[in-house]
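Weekend entry, working from home. Most of the wet-lab plans are on hold until the incubator is repaired, so I used the time to fold the two sequences that have been sitting in the queue since the last round of cloning. Logging both here for the record. First:
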Amino acid sequence: MSLLSILNWIQQTPFATGLKESALVFPLVEGTHILSLAVSVCMIVILDLRLLRLTFRNQSVSLVMDQLIQVALPGFIVTLLTGAMLFSTEAVRAFGSPFFRAKMMLLAAAGVNAIYYRFRYYPRMPEWDLTTPPAGARVVAALSLIFWIGVIGCGRTMAYEF
């Protein structure tokens, strides 16, 4: 079974066909995708800016992170679920788009970057929580901003291709 046949199967499932043909549900899923992305990425941007000491300088990184992750994580889960739903409606076309592929690579890079932060810098956060974060944590934050700008840029560009 080839990748193309799998993608064709995905977009021809009753779920994908029903979603694509729905004048009500499709816009709701698409709108939810965009709104949940905005919420989760906004929280990530605020944390990245805190790590870069560009905002909330008088707040500990752990306090900012603990408060923002409560919104960012559920928002990200909703974004992934609605993104998968949207992908299912145009799987072949989406996969053929260089912007989709770039978006997925940037999304994977953002995920690896976040995991790296979690294992490398998060355990030692009490050592620098109220001071300047280590240079490596600031690099992770800067990369995160770059990756998320790329994800959003590619996603918006994809919307104009379809």
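Second, folded right after the first finished:
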Amino acid sequence: MKLSSRSRYGVRALCALAILSRDNSPVPLARISKCEGIPKQYLGLIFHKLRKSGHVEAVRGLNGGYKLAKSPAEITVASVVRALDGPIAPVKCLIEREKGHRYCWREEVCLSRPAWAFLQQQIEKTLESITIESLIKKKCPTET
């Protein structure tokens, strides 16, 4: 499974925002863009989704910008990936199209589906255990 640049940039940008806004003051998008080397226009699209998902708040005005809507300890990498890219799934057949309906009609007889479901659970479990706070403190859950 390959994470999109949107998700990778989103996580990086939230880490930068957490560091640049230690006192929870708004940080201009241009500053985050410059710090992380992410095009400002693309970052604007990312932050629009992050705002809609409740990860950041926009502050208008002269000293406006963005600030985290939650503490860095409450924002998981999994929640960022879901907000920017949708469900976390290594294969399309694990994603529900509509309530109770999946993409693959072979779900009931597929011998490989349990392997993909297990992989999905492990990926989600790992990404849920990593927070923006653990990243900025450089302490991922597997490190001691």
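Plan for Monday: verify the second prediction. The mean pLDDT is 90.
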